[in-house]
TrEMBL record:
Pfam family, one: SRAP
UniProt protein name: Putative SOS response-associated peptidase YedK
BP GO terms, sorted: protein-DNA covalent cross-linking repair
Species for this entry: Azonexus fungiphilus
Single GO molecular function: single-stranded DNA binding
Length: 199
């Protein structure tokens, strides 16, 4: 599971992909570590806002003690509440790197990662979100967030698109994911630094 992520990017880079974001052109975003319960930048419908990482369903009377941070994509479309979010409340969460297990994952070419997610708005908790996760065939011994290519990210946010189960499964194939760089997150005084590139 993704334990935290970071967002280090210029506003101009984010605005290039999402012109409706409320950012000043010269601004720089430097969020070293976004952890569960923190506010994350969420993009949908041509605009962006902050949403708490940890999904609270709008139908709940009160927020659960441990709201879901990540949702497995397998079977998600068939689950009533999550299927509705998948059809109508898809979002993207931009990140420059992920912390998964003992690894730091980033794009091999230094590009922004577009994480597929769903969001909802609760009367008390406000806007919240969760990331969708997929199995991986790499060194990382965990599921990782579904990372979309730029063209897939645009399709993910398209109002008229509702992913069928087969379409979502195809999107989640490890071979179709962007090339990532995995760097061991360890104490350099005790262990040698390891790094791997994988597709």
């Amino acid at each position: 599971m993704c334990h935290s992520f970071e967002l280090k990017a210029s506003a101009s880079l984010l605005l290039r992909h999402c012109p409706g974001l409320p950012l000043a052109a010269g601004e720089r975003i430097r969020r070293e570590q976004i952890v569960p319960g923190d506010q994350a930048l969420v993009v949908a419908g041509g605009s962006g806002w902050l949403a708490r990482w940890g999904l609270v369903g709008s139908f709940l009377e009160r927020a659960p003690r441990q709201p879901p941070l990540c949702l497995d994509t397998e079977g998600l479309a068939e689950r009533p509440f999550y299927g509705r979010l998948l059809r109508h409340n898809r979002c993207l969460v931009p990140a420059s790197a992920l912390a998964v297990g003992g690894w730091r994952l980033s794009h091999r070419r230094g590009r922004l990662l577009w994480l597929a997610g769903v969001c909802d708005r609760h009367a008390d908790a406000g806007p919240t979100c969760a990331l969708l996760t997929v199995a991986t065939n790499v060194t990382v011994d965990a599921r990782i967030p579904l990372i979309l290519h730029d063209d897939e990210a645009a399709a993910w946010l398209a109002a008229g698109w509702a992913p069928a189960a087969g379409e979502l499964a195809e999107l989640c194939q490890p071979a179709a994911r962007p090339a990532l760089h995995a760097e061991a997150r360890c104490n350099p005084g005790r262990l040698p630094q390891l790094a791997f590139d994988f597709a």
